[in-house]
Amino acid sequence: MTLITVNGKDRRITIAKNNRKGMICALKKLPSSLLFLSAAVYLTAQADFDVITVFAVLICALCSAIALTHKSIWSLIGGIGLISISLTMQAVIKTTCLTCLKADLLILAGVICLSLVQRGKTKTPARVMALVMTVLMVAVAFIAVPISSMNTLTAAQDITAKLNPNKLDAEIEKIAEIKPVLLFSPKCPACKEVTEALAKLDPKGEKWQPVQSSGEAQEGVKYLKEKGYAGEVSYHRYAGGVPVLIIKQNGKITTIYGKENIIKAVTAPAK
Fold first, then answer.
1. Is cis: bond before 180, omega within 30 of 0?
2. What are the chain's domains?
């Protein structure tokens, strides 16, 4: 075997040392990679399947892979970009997506971990960006669940708004045992046609129970009244996608999506 030497030193030793450094560096970045991957998995499991979700999942997966390379700064920038887009979109549509915020926190954790292992020229900018995004997310966390949402609103114009932010799933299931529950948001474009159709078919809410999932509770009351609804409106924080109809029969919960499917389920004869 012929040894390749440089200035009398075995080049293989240098290569081995470089490989060892590379492995150590990759191991330091592994937590960040796993956090980005966790965000992708969480969005896949919890968020609605749409173009935006697919885009976010793909970017998270890409950031997870790049985080292990020497170009990891681009993974950090990508993570910050995803969080910024998420918060901007929520601000534009004036609603809070708790599923999105939870994914944002996972991404932020990955960004923070990645900023701590940066070296050289990227070290300071990476940590500054991570710090700024952390402060922003803390502020958003307080805004996402305003103190005012803990107070019960009074009845307004023959429509009662109930606010039960605690034990979300249990409360919804309890109502769903009596009649189908429609979870909606006044700021959700897809909710407009569904709520309008149901308000027209059953304006008193005898066969369905509207439950506002985000925003100020009084918004939902006004929103449904404008559509001709004159029944009771409930308010519960809900992190999943809307509109969705929840039905509970014989202890089994069924979730129904899509305008036609929801209307069909509400108007179907009781079993």
1. no
2. 5-144 (no CATH), 149-267 (3.40.30)
For every residue of 139-178, DSSP letters joined together read: HHHHHHS-GGGGSPPPPBTTB-EEE--SSHHHHHHHHHTT
Polymer length of the chain: 271
pLDDT at 142: 67
Q: Are 39 and 105 within 8 A, CB to CB?
A: no
In this structure, is the dihedral angle defined by the CA atoms of residues 28, 80, 61 and 255, taken in order, positive or negative?
A: positive
What pTM value is reported for the model?
A: 0.52
CA distance 25 to 216: 47
**Residue 136 structure tokens:** 């922003």
Q: Provide φ and ψ at 2, rounded to 5°.
A: -95, 130
Taking CA atoms, 173 is separated from 28, 71, 246, 249, 269, in Å, by 44, 48, 8, 10, 20
Q: What is the pLDDT of residues 240-253, one digit of tens each?
A: 778 889 988 887 88
> How much is the mean pLDDT over the chain?
78
Question: What is the rounded radius of gyration, in angstroms, for the C-alpha atoms of the chain?
Answer: 25
DSSP annotation string for the chain: -PPPEETTEEHHHHHHHHHHHHHHHHHHHHHHHHHHHHHHHHHHHHS--SHHHHHHHHHHHHHHHHTTSTTHHHHHHHHHHHHHHHHHHHHHTT---HHHHHHHHHHHHHHHHHHHT--GGGHHHHHHHHHHHHHHHHHHHHHHS-GGGGSPPPPBTTB-EEE--SSHHHHHHHHHTTS-EEEE-TT-HHHHHHHHHHHHH-TT-SS-EEEE-SS-HHHHHHHHHTTT--S-EEE----S-SSEEEEEETTEEEEE-SHHHHHHHHHSPP-
